User: Fold this.
Amino acid sequence: MNSVNIAQGLIYAQNVSKNFGTESQPLPILKNISLQIKSGDSVCIVGPSGAGKSTLLQILGTLDRPSSGSLFFEGMDVLKFDDEKLSRFRNLTMGFVFQFHHLIPEFNAIENVMLPARISGVSVNEARARALELLGQLGLSHRVDHYSHQLSGGELQRVAIARALIQKPRVLFADEPTGNLDSANSQNIQNLFFQLKESLGLTLIVVTHDAQFAKKFSKVLKMTDGQF
Ligand SMILES: Nc1ncnc2c1ncn2[C@@H]1O[C@H](COP(=O)(O)OP(=O)(O)OP(=O)(O)O)[C@@H](O)[C@H]1O
Ligand SMILES: [Mg+2]
Assistant:
């Protein structure tokens, strides 16, 4: 890591630490982590429960700020952004999928998918067109008007993936995206991630407990106790 140029690569995390404790009772969770991710990489983060995988993913995805260290996107020191600028940057650059779909139950599938675009000021017509295209690509053209209670587990996760992609992100982050699915649906979602990576030119950063899924990534980072 010595000769790493911060302007190189898509993401560069430098000496990132996260402490959830207080000054008198520190609780170090991430311990001086540095890593570089290039555009088009597929990176998998594995390790035992409590190792800090989700914490690291949240920090790489700018959903949380580290206690110390830096995070660069294409050389931009994004932790210097204020919260509003960082939110806008995140909305336009990154998509997120979690173990649970977190769809809004009062909205149907297409309305959920449109939401990140609408938040950023994309017109209803444009957001609807993008959402319809994505839902079609994900095999959900016949489910656009369905609410979450009317969708299966695999369908819910595909709607969540469409929502993560509506803003045409560069990076797709996922935290145990197949953790809640049976093996057939898990296989489908795994394949879908790599198809989308190719067709949309995504960079993938995924946390998983599934060893078979992990094997498909070009880089596997094994975390133990807050470090690699
Ligand atoms: N907001 C918080 N406040 C205090 N401690 C936290 C907080 N978030 C996480 N932790 C602690 O940090 C450690 C790492 O949590 P994290 O969720 O990153 O683990 P993980 O590797 O994703 O585990 P799992 O595989 O179970 O999801 C855990 O011990 C957890 O209890
Ligand atoms: Mg976790």
Observations:
- Residues 183-200 form the longest helix (18 residues).
- Residues 53-54, 175 surround magnesium ion (ligand 2) (CB under 6 Å).
- The helical segments are 53-60, 83-93, 109-119, 124-137, 153-165, 183-200, 211-214.
- The longest strand covers residues 28-37.
